[in-house]
Amino acid sequence: MRILYSLLALLFTCSIGFSESTADRPNIILIISDDQAFNDYSFMGSETAKTPHLDKIASESLVYTRGYVMPVCSPSLACLLTGKIPRKHGITGNDLAPDAPQFSGGKQNRKPLMDQLLSNSLILPKTLTNSGYLTFQTGKLWNATFKDVGFTHGMTDKQGRHGGDGLTIGRKGMQPIYDFIETSNKEKKPFFIWHAPLMPHDPHTPPEEILEKYKGKGLTPEAEKYYAMVEWFDNTCGELDDYLTKNDLKKNTVILYLADNGWNASEGYKGGRAKMTPYEIGIRSPMFVRWPEKVKPHRDEETLAHITDFPATILKIANIKAPADITGSDLLDRDAMTSRKSIFVESYCHDIADLKNPGKSLYARVVINGFSKLIIPGPAKPTRPFHTIPTEIELYDLKTDPFEKTNLAKQKPDEVKRLVAIQDAEWDGK
Asked: How far apart are CA 275 and CA 426, in angstroms?
């Protein structure tokens, strides 16, 4: 009987300890902009894009202006779910190519892609849910439902290409997020929110009162609508931040921010060096973390940040041990971040040639070491002729040439050789 009482006491103590540990952990909101160039923010120097609310949040954050993502959405979002780069998590494009070995049942059969995604050691929302968080999915979620990847609550309840019903968030208000937060408060659990609205992504259908602000300024009609979408998205971020403040949640809620890939304001998908390409407009994004009274606001213009840093950071914030095979660094660990020498980006075809052979779809490998950037062409050919895909090695000095106008590869063969060695070592798994 004494042993039984001891076991019951132990179970009671463990249960109390679990509830206390979850209550002490902060809430976490991951905001993912969709199709927004790195320089299309006021705080990043744009004189056209109006982003006062993101400017404010960034001013209260640790900001890395040199963050890097993958050049198209599904692979980028998979990086955030798994903590790995595309060739390691296996989702290199948005769709399976019709001649891919795994293709069956048409483009909307996402099961092979879902199975590949779920085979990874980390699925971020599932891990957070298992550790005691209430978790909520809004916006884009490729290949799976919110339940498939472990969210307790969500808006995408059918497997598909973008996110189904989740895509209404922002465009039709933010109430689903507020309702979820109220649920988490009632259950006295910390919350994690995946907020990935289809904004400023097309269809570019901004409110007319916002669109009017951009007319008559010499912009193309496409750019007018895009910049209005950027402002509309910014407004929704302001609404969310106001809600946190008014409900006394700001202090204990961590906001993390990035965009999934870039965009060409005037030319959209046909912008040759933007989305789907390994150039700066396609792969660079500001990245920031706001945690009031915990993280000192600072703007870092030198350090390299990477999309795979987000899962590592979120797990650290939530006091969860990360799997050994994820590759990112904690964005809040300044020693680790500032000592990083290189980051890597992979650019692939829109359609996946073979889930088991990522290299078959490879457009280009990218290594950035300091401000030196090398692009190494891959074997795949463009499936969309308006994308600018490198056909030879390209070397750029991003310090003096941030928009990659001058290829220095022939002028600096020793630098090319040095960077190729760094990239090859990473590609080989070292």
From this structure: 24
Asked if 79 contacts 69 with a C-beta cutoff of 8 angstroms, the reply is yes
Read off the pTM.
0.93
- Fill in the DSSP letter of residue 183: H
Please count the CA atoms within 13 angstroms of the CA of 133 that sit on its side-chain side: 28
Distance CA 363, CA 283 (A): 14
CATH number for the domain spanning 237: value is 3.40.720.10
Query: Tokens 């009609």 belong to which residue?
Result: 221
User: Is position 358 within any domain?
Assistant: no
Q: Per the domain annotation, does 84 fall within a domain?
A: yes
**Element housing 63 (H / E):** strand 62-68
State how far the Cα of 82 lies from the Cα of 228, in Å rounded to an integer: 32
Question: What is the Cα–Cα distance from 330 to 306, expressed in whole angstroms?
Answer: 10
pLDDT by residue, tens only, the chain of 430 residues = 434 433 433 333 333 222 334 458 999 999 999 999 999 999 999 999 999 999 999 999 999 999 999 999 999 999 999 999 999 999 999 999 999 998 887 766 889 999 999 999 999 999 999 999 999 999 999 999 999 999 999 999 988 788 888 899 999 999 999 999 999 999 999 999 999 999 999 999 999 999 999 999 999 999 999 999 999 999 999 999 999 999 999 999 999 999 999 999 998 877 778 999 999 999 999 999 999 999 999 999 999 999 999 999 999 999 999 999 998 999 999 999 999 999 999 999 999 999 999 999 999 999 999 999 999 999 998 776 667 889 999 999 999 999 999 999 999 999 999 999 999 999 987 4
On whether residue 397 sits in a domain, the answer given is: no
Question: Which domain covers residue 240, as residue numbers?
Answer: 27-340
Query: Which residues, including other chains, have CB under 8 Å from residue 288's CB and lie 6 or more apart?
Result: 57, 58, 61, 62, 63, 64, 256, 257
Domain count, the chain: 1
As to burial, measured by CB atoms within 10 angstroms (0-12 exposed, 13-18 middle, 19+ buried), residue 148 is: buried
C-alpha 50: how far from its chain's center?
Answer: 21
- Quote the CA–CA distance of 163 and 260 in Å, as a whole number: 15
